[in-house]
Amino acid sequence: MASVVESARNIWKIQELRQRILFTLGVLVVYRLGSYVTLPGIDAVALQQLTDANPNQGGLFGLFNLFVGGAFFRAGVFALGIMPYITASIIVQLLGAVVPYFQKLQREGEDGRRKITQLTRYGTVAITALQSIGYAINLQATSGTAIVIPAWAFTLVCVICLTAGTVFVMWLGERITEKGIGNGISLIIMIGIIAFLPAALANQFTEVANIFVFLIELGALFLVTMGVVFVTQGTRRIPVQYAKRVVGRKQYGGTTQYLPLRVNAAGVMPIIFAQSIMFIPSTIAAFFPDSAFWVGVGNATGDIFGVWYSVLFFVICVFFTYFYTAIAVNPQEMADTMKRQGGFIPGVRPGRQTSEFIDTILTRITLPGALFIGFVAILPAIAAQAGVLPGFAQFFGGTSLLILVGVTLDTLQQIESHLLMRHYDGFMKTGRVRGRRR
Q1: Contacts made by residues 432-435, CB under 8 angstroms, sequence distance 24+
Q2: I want to staple 305 with a disulfide (CB 3.0 to 4.6 A). Which of 3, 93, 326, 384 is the partner?
Q3: pTM higher than 0.90
Q4: Domains (range + CATH), the chain
Q5: What is the dihedral sign for C-alpha 317, 116, 114, 188?
Q6: What positions belong to coiled-coil segments (predicted)?
């Protein structure tokens, strides 16, 4: 505990780190305040009364509302949040795997990344405009009495304001990444989730009315959280031997190092990608409220505690874990870099065989990680069946817990990097956030 307090003091001593943290907190406050700004043409009091009359609004829209900090049910200008940007990123990355033009951009370094970012922004605008129409139709069907302007005018207002709101949130996230600390997009999602945690704990404690049962639930949540941290931090170390090289009068190499391959190399992105995919059927169904087929599809894929949703969500999580790992980790590039530096894996020939060896190991260790992530993703449905309130069950696993753990670890790692660069100890003297080795 003393080391944590000392690390907090050291953070405040470093001017650059202090400014980055304060800037990040300021941007997050702006985002939270903006989530309470209601769309034009809506009677906020009447909408609140309708929401209070139906407090058990759950399903996929309830989960979406969790990600945007409650702005979805409040009909705020940030009602769609950052999710259209995530969807656009998924589409661009999928195109990068099959379209030669996007593959070329990925190989062009910084210029290519800037072009991809620009295309992702354009895609975000298009996706937000489409989703805002569906949002307007859904809001008119469920809260029509709270809308005080004609339907066509309200739809136009939704398209303009929601698109502008999402673009502004995207800009805030990019500013955090550039001038703040941590990944801005992930932090914006996380802060919306955290906003619901105090109320969820209070409601669960009131519902249980038994301190012993409540402590058991908290203990189970703690164990699940530790399991997620363990899998997130887990690595497979491959020994790499470097040959001796003599440059002038100095000798280099001749040492054994390790190539760390993470069990969950994809991090938190697969769960975010999978969640974005799960929004698509319900969004399409909102355009066809009179179609029995689409209503059935929307109900089946919109019940986050239902069987069909859980099965589909599990499969998509496993798929995207492998997909994003294949994008994030390139065995061929690792093998080529190792060969240029005079390194080799004992018992494996450099070049193609090294690449195949790394790919085989990566495939094997990703399987348990993907299955675990998929299982944690559907834990809220299991917790709800065990009697946990839906609001608190969403923190029992699933997207909420994975995002909270992943984003927290990533942010702590960046803070610790600033501390170590200035010769301060990290958060723990016995180990770094990602495993300090002396």
Answers
A1: 433/409, 434/233, 434/409, 435/233, 435/235
A2: 384
A3: no
A4: 17-194 (1.10.3370.10), 223-396 (1.10.3370.10)
A5: negative
A6: none
